[in-house]
Specification:
Length: about 350
């Protein structure tokens, strides 16, 4: 394990399977065809995009501040979103010819760029070498994160009550759950410390999984002080933190929950309500030990199957390689609509 400034290189924690992952040789060709619109590459089995049958894709969305239920009930006019076949009229969002073509494992550039700006705005990671990769939601993201660090027979620290789908994922992967006591603010740091300090298992404990905001199934949300205490315990025992946080932007604090300096550090342009969001574990991470899972499932719609993973660049690189041999990247329609919504509409 090496330390670069304050960031720690956790690559020795990678499973042998993760260490063997390399860039897909076909995916490595995409950059050449992307840079030349007149080049039709048959090397990667890429069809001619002029033959795609989709001319435009349009939808109508609510205006910011309006209530979705009222839009449906009263048939109020919303905002139009249109994805064009070739020309997006100056928008940074890719046209359908690009959105629907084979591509690499990171995701469409316009959406990745937006999510990186959002991460910078809302979390402001404390180390420089971080990156983002698209996922098809947090269930997919969790599977990718687990494969990065845990083999069959390994153990993972979890809240004594936790997300049922995560439990099933651990079970099917042959990963043992080590329960940690929770209270009204989620996982108890002293209990985590006790479990780690008394551990006598054959393999070391290396990963802790939790939902810090609106914990499923208890609904508990960690306070800022609790998050700091939790992070210190993870530093003490050198744990990787999988921060599964689908409810982060659904916090409803009446008053600010962090001081002015912390709020300012996390603000870009005018991001309303930023001081009412409890700083994430990612925002407290100085070591590069947090891998964060985000999704649009709770803020747009679940079956868009779209999210993103944030963490140190060497971890994200391995997940990109994993994507290239599994999902490739999320659905082009979903990425295009979300990117158009976030970049041009809202």
């Amino acid at each position: 394990m090496t330390i670069n400034n304050t960031q720690i290189d956790f690559s020795e924690y990678f499973t042998e399977r993760a260490k063997r992952r390399r860039i897909n040789s076909l995916a490595s060709l995409f950059k050449y065809s992307k840079n030349d619109p007149n080049l039709i590459s048959i090397g990667g089995g890429m069809p001619n995009p002029d033959l795609f049958p989709f001319i435009t894709v349009s939808t109508n969305v609510v205006e910011p501040g309006n209530n979705t239920i009222n839009i449906v009930k009263y048939k109020e006019n919303g905002l139009d979103i249109t994805l064009n076949r070739s020309n997006q009229n100056g928008s940074k969002v890719e046209p359908l010819k690009t959105l629907l073509q084979y591509a690499g494992g990171k995701g469409m550039s316009s959406l990745v760029d937006f999510t990186k700006a959002l991460v910078k705005a809302s979390h402001n990671p404390k180390y420089k070498d971080w990156d983002v990769v698209s996922s098809v939601g947090n269930t997919d993201a969790l599977n990718k994160a687990l494969e990065l660090f845990l083999d069959e027979g390994d153990s993972i620290l979890v809240c004594e009550w936790t997300y049922p789908a995560a439990i099933q994922t651990f079970h099917s992967s042959g990963i043992n759950r080590i329960p940690v006591k929770i209270d009204g603010e989620g996982m108890v740091p002293s209990a985590l410390d006790e479990v780690c300090s008394s551990w006598t298992g054959e393999k070391p404990l290396r990963v802790v999984y939790l939902i810090p905001t609106g914990q499923n199934p208890t609904g508990a949300t960690m306070s800022l002080e609790r998050r700091r205490e939790f992070y210190k315990v993870c530093q003490k025992h050198n744990l990787i933190i999988i921060e599964d946080d689908p409810y982060y932007f659904l916090q409803f604090a009446d008053t600010p929950v962090c001081d002015t300096k912390q709020a300012t550090e996390r603000t870009f342009a005018e991001l309303p309500g930023i001081d009412r969001l409890v700083p994430s574990l990612l925002s407290l991470d100085t070591d590069g030990r947090v891998i964060r899972l985000d999704t649009v499932s709770k803020i747009l719609a679940p079956n868009m199957r779209l999210g993103w993973i944030i963490g140190p660049a060497n971890m994200i690189e391995k997940i990109i390689y994993h994507n290239e041999t599994t999902i490739s990247q999320p659905c082009g329609f979903a990425q295009g609509i979300a990117s158009k919504l976030f970049n041009d509409t809202w």
